[in-house]
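User: New here, please read:
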Amino acid sequence: MTFQNFDQITIEGYRRIAKLKLPLKSLNVIIGANGSGKTSLLEAVSLLSASASGKMADSFADLGGFNAVRTNLTEWESQAIQFSLRQKTISAMPLEYEIYIQPTGVDYSIGEECLFQDRGQANPFIHLKASRGNIQYFDSLQEKKLVRPTWEINPAESALSQVPRMFSEPEAFRKALASSTHYHVLDVSQKAPVRLPQSMRTATLPGKNGEDLISCLYMIRETDSDLFDHIQDTLRMGFSNFDRLNFPPVAAGTLAMTWKDERSSQPFYMHQLSEGTLRFLWLVTLLYSPGLSAVTMIDEPEVSLHPELLSILADVFRIASERTQLIIATHSDRLVRFLTPNEIISTTIEDDGSTHFHWGTEFDLEGWLKDYTLDQLWQMGRMGGRA
């Protein structure tokens, strides 16, 4: 089944996001000052993904625990976190998933959960509902009705991740959500995986830490020469002297990768490349990769990149958004310059400390854009996004 974008997210009680209902598009670039809630939105999507893959407990632990991420703003103090996510479907009957997570001592419990679909009837069709551990799901194979699990349920994980296969559309929803991937700033320290030779294995993505960058690019070269040429052409756009990538073996089953420059007699190995070059190479590979998940989240893609590379990156975002739903967080003025108002979500911290999110199209910018670039308007405060 072809993936349909998630078209709306609702968040309540998470960090600075006190209450939010936000439409989503194929390309969503969130701009704003440090601490304004950009990454919080990506974390929320990641937690929803964890709810679909049975990894919610681990995700909360990685974030410092449930109580560490609950809103503690004076005017918005909340005892619970609520998420909902809506998806368009091929049948034009939207699916919506809701989950209500509440504190229990120093931990959490899942209070309410529901996956339902608007089928044009008086009441939505319920695929799954749960209330304080009492779970019912629609058995699409045998009973043809809501039934209860006959096995032990892990109370720390969502019912969505533990019930059997449902109808094709809710199952596609669950798989798409579970596959969603959050990429942080790539580690390019001297001993980082991206700088070292790598064991060859099947890889359709370069890895969160670049640990499969060489395998991914080598596989693309061997299986899709046109795509590999396209990646190299994109690198040439950013680096005028770039010639080609090569893959010299260093041991049985292990390859290195070299960057050949037209002005250099010897190729550069990965450990010799600059931070910006490595990060751009990894980003381009990621965004062209055949294994992109349904939702791809990227934090601060502009780190270490020369401003001229950001123009190319913006175009690569648009190309990639035809195959994955992109959610990107940035505070780079220069990246904003190469985007359009309908690609930008601006964050603003209000007087009560909460973050508000607004699409760039919500601001009256048409007249201003005749005389100013989008990044200038952001710096002028015409579209929020400043502390």
